[in-house]
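Researcher: First entry.
Model:
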Amino acid sequence: MRNAMQQLSFLICAAALSLQAWSQVKVTEAWVRGTVPAQKSTGAFMTLNAERDVTLVEVRSEAAGRVEVHEMAMANNVMTMSAVPKLPLPAGKSVELKPGGYHLMMLELKQPLKAGDSVAITLVVEGRDGKRQDIQAVATVRPLGQ
């Protein structure tokens, strides 16, 4: 019995260390732009740092019906915005999701977002081996105009 408990303890520790090593994606400076009544979309911004090469493949939030990664870019002297299906997060490099560049679009908002509110966001990253992991982030709502 004691041997079985030691083996179980070892497996739990090994699994925890494996998950910890895999999950080294840090989210910093997460914020969401506040909205006005009846507004159905807004942007979310943050800095992502991955210790291993991973790809951001999906984003979810209970505050919105859909969340997409978007990119703003100049095309023929016109600023365009388009959805990006995947966003590489290179190991050791900061990837900024910011106004005017890559950012998250929260669509089909379920209610207005007021300054000071917190919004939970789930980022799904995929490693080179195809394994996916959820990264939880909490973004603070900033006043409209920031």
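Researcher: Second entry.
Model:
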Amino acid sequence: MTKMKTKSSRKISLAIACAITVCLAACSGANKNQGSNAGSPVPPKVRSSKDVVKFGGSAVGFSKPGEGSVDVVVVIESGYHVNANPATFSYLIPTELTAEKVEGLEVGKPIYPVAENKKFEFAPEPLAVYEGEIKIKLPLRVLPSNGSKQLPVNLRVQACNQEECFPPDTLHTTIAVEVK
């Protein structure tokens, strides 16, 4: 009877030892995959241009009908760029700001900032791009009317990093225009 208990105890001990070994191996493998940044958060994976580009404009006020403009601020996350307007090549997607029609407002053609010409490994020659924070001036003409108006604006961009470009996106926001 003691021989059976001993064999049974050995099997249980062996099973426990195997389970501990498997757990230790799994835990040490997880740490290797995380590298030296085990405690730091992993940045989210970029899936499209809207993940790295944000934009908006401050409210603008007019004391009477007339002409003015609003600065639309575009912020491109560090390490990324968007094509300038105009783009270097016809097959590249330029950054493009458009505004929807609103009664009492006439919107002019956007004035884009001067681009940076940068060389990338994937392109045969330097490309005209925007990085960081840029301002696009949007001319406005306010017709005789009073009150607040909401101007819907859209920004079409294609963000890229040093290795790849992401699917283009159209971002949307509204800018408040106050006519006193």
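Model: Note on the second entry: Residues 17-37 have pLDDT under 50 and may be disordered.
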